[in-house]
């Protein structure tokens, strides 16, 4: 049985996460299971380029750099510092960043394959700290927006890789009926913990975004391989951002965040206003754009004591009201 696109991406993540050195594309071709040994250099290059784009679209921090000070060849790795997430205290964005690796690591069918991949990497001379890899990948068991859609994700990634059309039932909301869509799939993107397929909807002859949790039970690849290709220069994240309603900011907020916490919120900060101690805890004061008031309030409230709204007063009151409502329910 051939290795699927999802398995190959998992193997690639493990390889790039397991070394602090930059690994060349040729070395990756040798040690990462899933790249056909008989593929031409051009075919491997195309496949590897697609895989790098997939990882970046999924929020995985893929770095490039020189293999050594004396070797100008470009190599690749995943920064452990940027990839590692706090135990348990994971926001939706942080969980999505490691979603593929997490889900695959926990899948019983792939546990043996994953362990085998680590052994192969060690045998090939790649420096691996298996404990670090295991802790990082299994740091969360809850993946908002993907639960129940793992098989759909695998089929979509495989179809994108092979350049095939897909058909699936989809509904814009839970209150509406399913309608079968025929789509040229271009990529899968995460946004605030939710997963989206971006592609060209042939029925409507337009670019469309489909939330994976609203796709029916099965995705069916159709047509010949190679019939679909992703347009050059396309920014999938911008397409998803426009589709889910992120418009220009309607205001700004000042928020205190505890040191070592609220990583996703920090990434969206427009400015750092300096360190600040609050309630005896060290932290930092940051400035955020408010695109959707309710969404920002919900995200900050989900962080509990690790984030405190300083301004505006309306946002602070909204977050406090959410805490009080939660306390009443408890």
Describe this protein's structure.
With 330 residues, this protein is an alpha+beta fold. It folds into three domains: 5-137, Orthogonal Bundle (Arc Repressor Mutant, subunit A), CATH 1.10.10; 150-243, SH3 type barrels (Roll); 251-329, Alpha-Beta Plaits. It is 40% helix and 25% strand. The protein contains 13 helices and twelve strands. The chain has helices at 5-17, 25-31, 41-57, 80-83, 92-97, 99-106, 108-123, 130-137, 150-162, 236-243, 263-267, 293-301, 313-329, and strands at 23-24, 62-68, 71-78, 165-170, 179-191, 194-201, 206-211, 220-222, 251-258, 271-278, 281-290, 307-311. The strands form three sheets. The chain has a five-stranded antiparallel β-sheet with strand order 7-6-5-4-8. It has a four-stranded antiparallel β-sheet with strand order 10-11-9-12. α1 (5-17) packs across α6, α1 crosses α7 (108-123) and α12 (293-301) crosses α13 (313-329). It is flat. The protein starts with a helix and ends with a helix. 34% of the residues are buried. Mean pLDDT is 77; it is low at 86-111 and 126-145.
Features:
single chain; 330 residues; alpha+beta; Arc Repressor Mutant, subunit A; SH3 type barrels; Alpha-Beta Plaits; 5-stranded antiparallel beta sheet; 12 strands; 25% strand
